[in-house]
Amino acid sequence: MGAIKVGLLGFGTIGTGVVRNIQHNADVIQQRLGCRVELAQIADLDIETDRGVTLDAGVLSTDVEQVICNPDIDIVIELIGGYEPAKSFILKAIANGKHIVTANKALMAVHGQEIITAANKQGVSVMFEAAVGGGIPIISAIKENLCSNEFSSVLGILNGTCNFILTKMTEEGSDFAPVLQEAQELGYAEADPTFDIEGVDTAHKIALLSALCFGTSVDFEQVYTEGISNITAVDIQFAAQMGYKIKLLAIGKNHGDQIEARVHPTMIPGSYQLAEINGVFNAVRLTGDFAGPTMLFGSGAGMDATASAVMGDVMAISRDKLSGATSRVPIMGYTADSIKSLPIKPMSEVVSHYYLRFTTFDKPGVLAQIAGALGCHNISIQSMIQPESHEAESVSIVLMTHSAKEQDIAAAIKEIEQLEFVSQPTCLIRVEHDLD
Q1: How many CA within 13 A on the CB side of residue 326?
Q2: Which 3 state secondary structure label does DSSP give 256?
Q3: CB within 8 Å of 272: residues ≥ 6 apart
Q4: Which of 250, 297, 272, 266 shows the shortest CA–CA distance to 156?
Q5: Which helix (H) or strand (E) holds 86?
Q6: 342 in a structural domain
Q7: Is the peptide bond before 85 cis (omega within 30 degrees of 0)?
Q8: Are 127 and 120 in contact (CB under 8 A)?
């Protein structure tokens, strides 16, 4: 075969990176693959902006049909993002016998099953390494290198924007708002950062990782999602005093008959590797029954890192095509008839340790009443900090609990906040230190 021909939908930042990779590393790609990868067609609404790359005449078009209906194109790369028209374009490309590579985490997390069903019926591949972790090859590790393992957990720092913000808050003692503004000025955060800072982006990724690790379908709407916008410098300082760092952590756990899939700010011991992942970097920690704990770390976003992941998928599909293989690796890592429907454990049933910060008026007997209310709900105190107050009346009482059930914690907080000495809502942050 002379060349594998690819078509590109979307010529933004990542699309430009893909073109640069194909052009700059053409020799490396050919030496590793045994043939050339040629960019046959690009479709984008904007064909006037200079992306800093040179294209042959006729390659760039505003007509998406020239990509998805082109009989010469073997692989369609979708980098449009969002749900529509990306989903419709992918489904039409599949119907035309095209293999698909996408970086679209939201689409795969919410509509992945429809796309996978269509691909299986048509006998084509769908790969989405770039949808999770940017340049980190976590999906291929799960589906291939570690595929003989049964995974008990997958934990990740999966959003560079949030990790940058929390790192700056930790290192500089800054509050959330000014650090978010700095992240926007540096280009790490969007003008509307809601999907990032409220955990939605991370939830898309843990939905995919949990499905891949545990062999189950995951309803994205059932993934508990909480962002970092309520994290304060005060709580980061108290966490440090207790030996912890706060990260936006994606958590997937396999309990056999059900799974956990959740995203929220989490305290983890400062001595753990995950706690040392700073700035815009991402990391994923897998625990397999034979491999044990394995952590992959790297650039979670950006033009070149994400383009690298896209091209890894292009070359994997190309190798299958060159060898005559069809669907050599199942799209979700398990054969379609092996995928289970495991329920996601309700958040009320989740068991964790908890950091609680109560703000109260400085009166006698306050601590005893708080401890009593916790005890009535089967919650025991592991440690406590009661710093000196710098205000006339308000004091903070900071507690770390032993293992407790979420619904018991919620009931205790509701009862405590009805007491007359409580002056502000309680701050709750979950704690993970038994990562296996």
Answers
A1: 8
A2: coil
A3: 433, 435
A4: 250
A5: helix 86-95
A6: no
A7: yes
A8: no
Distance in Å from the first CA to the final CA of the chain? 47
Check whether residue 190 and residue 267 sit in a common domain. yes
Question: 284, 142 in Cβ contact below 8 A?
Answer: no
Q: What percent of the chain has pLDDT over 70?
A: 98
Structural domain count of the chain: 3
Place of tokens 């908890």: 354
Select from 356, 362, 363 the least CA-distant residue to 431. 356
* 312 and 271 in a common domain: no
Picking from 222, 284, 271, 224, the residue whose alpha carbon sits closest to that of residue 245 is: 271
CB hemisphere CA count around 53 (13 angstroms): 22
pLDDT band of residue 208 (cuts 50, 70, 90) is very high
Specify whether 125 is located in the same domain as 144.
Answer: no
Nearest to 211 by CA among 317, 274, 139: 139
Judge whether 341 lies within some domain: no
Instruction: For residue 107, give the H/E element and its range.
Output: helix 105-122
Do 320 and 252 lie in a common domain?
no
- Answer whether residue 436 is part of any domain: no
H/E run at residue 244: strand 244-254
Domain ranges, residue 195: 138-298
Q: Which residues lie below 8 Å from residue 4, measured CB to CB, with a gap of 6+?
A: 33, 35, 36, 37, 38, 74, 75, 314, 318, 321, 322
Tokens in use for 427? 């701050």
Q: In whole numbers, what is the pLDDT of the chain averaged over residues?
A: 93
So what's the pLDDT on residue 436?
A: 54
Is 345 part of the annotated catalytic residue set?
A: no
3-state SS assignment for residue 12: coil
Predicted local distance difference test score (pLDDT) of residue 1: 60
State the DSSP code for 344.
Answer: B
Question: Is the pLDDT at 305 greater than 80, yes or no?
Answer: yes
Residue 367: pLDDT band (50, 70, 90) is confident
Residue 9 · residue 67 · CB < 8 Å = yes
289: confidence class by pLDDT, cuts 50, 70, 90? very high
Q: Looking at 10-98, which runs of residues are DSSP E strands?
A: 36-43, 60-61, 75-78
Q: For residue 309, which phi and psi values (nearest 5 degrees)? A: -65, -40
Does 152 lie in the same domain as 35? no
CATH code assigned at 366: 3.30.70.260
Residue whose tokens read 């990724």:
205
Of these residues, 143, 205, 247, 345, which one is catalytic?
A: 205
